[in-house]
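Deliverable D5.2: sample structural annotation.
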Amino acid sequence: MFAANGIAFQTIDLHDDPEADLNKAKYYPISRGIIKSFAKYVDGYEFVAVDGIAKCKEVLENIASLDGMFLELNSCEYACVNGPCSLISEGTAVKANAEIRHYASRGRTVPTTDQLIKLSEVCFKADRPRLRPAEYTPTEREIKAILAKTNKVRPEDELNCGACGYNSCRDKAWAVANGYAAIEMCIPYMRERAESMSYEIIQNSPNGILLIDNDLKIIEINHKALSLLGIEDSAVKGCNLYDYYDASDFLLAQQEHRNLYRKKIFISKTNAYAEVSIVQLKKENVLFGVFKDITSETDYDQRVRAMKLETLKTTDEVIKKQMRVAQEIASLLGETTAETKVALVKLKQTLQNDEGE
C-alpha cells in the first residue's frame, strides 16, 4: 500500500523537536491535551478545556449561549490521566499530569534506517485478557435479571449495538451490577420505552387526536377520534380522511397556512358536538388535529335554553290569562253597577212620587 503511493520510510526526515507534531499527540491524556495537539489555532475562536462531570454538564446545559468556542470536554477530572481505569492512586493526578507533560516535551531518539527495517519486521500484535476489578463478579442469574430490566429476555434481544459504550449487553449488565453504568444507558430500550409511552398517552387521551399528511391521508388516529368521528374501521392509517369525515377545515388550514383553534362543529354521523383545533407542523409537513368532545356541555346548554323558552312561554300565558280574568271581572262589575244605578233611580222616583201625593 505504501509502495503503491510512493511512500518510502527511508526517505522520511525524522525530527527530534519536542514541539514537533509527532510529539503533540502525547499530551492527549491531560487537560488541554487535544487543544495542544493542534498544528495551529483557528482565528476568532476561543479554545477552552473543561474537566469533571459537573462542569461538563453546566457547559452543555448552556451550550446555546456559547459562540466562537472550541470546547474540549473531559468527564473525568484532570482528564483521562485520572479516569476510571487509571493506575494512579487518589491525590496524585497533578503529579501524573506533570509527568506526562515532561514525557511529551522530551526529544525522541531518531532510529537509523537499519533500525526502521528491523522494526518493520516486528509484529506488535498481542492478545491481552480483559482486566476487571476483582471486587464483585455478578452471577448468571443476576446478569439475566439486569438484562430483563431492559426487555432483554432472549439471546436475540441482546442487540450488542455498543451505543451504551460497552461491547455487548452482557458487559453493560456487568457494569450495572458494579455501579459503573445505569439501566437507562441502553438507548434502544429508552427509545422503545419513550415510543411506547407516547403511543399509550395518545391512545388513552380523553380528546380525539388525528394526524394527517399534506395529501390528507391519515397517519395516526386514536380511539377517541375513531369513536367521535364514527369511523368503525380501525385500520384507517394511510386512507384518505375525506372518505370518513368532512376534511374542509384541514384543507383550509393547509391552503391558508394558518392554525385553527376551538372551532365548534357538529358531527352528524354521531350526533356529537366537538371543538376542533388544527395545528400545522411545518417541519414534519403534517397537520395535527385535536377534537374535544363537548356533546354533554352542548346538550346541557340546549336543555337550559329550552327550559328558559318554556318558562317565558308559560309566563306569557299566565299574563294573558290574568288579563282576561281582569277584563271579565271589570265587565261584570260594570254591568252590576249599571243595573244597581237603574234600580236606585227607580226607587228614588217612586219615593218622590209618594211624597208628592
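Annotation notes: Residues 311-357 form one domain. The CA atoms of residues 150 and 285 lie 34 Å apart.
The annotation will be released with the project's public dataset once the embargo ends.
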